[in-house]
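pasting for the record
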Amino acid sequence: MDCIFCKIVNGEIKSRLIMESKNSVAFLDAFPVTKGHTLVIPKTHYGKIQDMTQDDSADLFRVVYEVVPKIDKITGSTLLAIHNGKESGQEIPHVHVHLIPRQSNDLAGPVHSMFKNRPNLSDDEFDQLHIMLKSS
């Protein structure tokens, strides 16, 4: 497999490790969008969150929980982002959580600003979505 994150886990590519647990690692993003941008990944290769074992998922989010206060020290606020699949913007098909220090003058805006063509759903459409998601 030619996965850059797997190569980081295996020590084939240098990283600036912040924290390591049994099943996860946190390291500085090599191409940060802000100073301190950090990634937390499972050591095992998974393409999407729902592919992970419960143990690996719990470990990943425990590491996120422990690293966020460290990131918060930079600006006082941290954006957590997960792109779960190619269509959502996932560029590397290995689960990773972005921890991105944010400040009011970074001009990135809230998540809603990412979507220029937002749907205008009727009550019936909301109800249909609700029933579909609740029953699946």
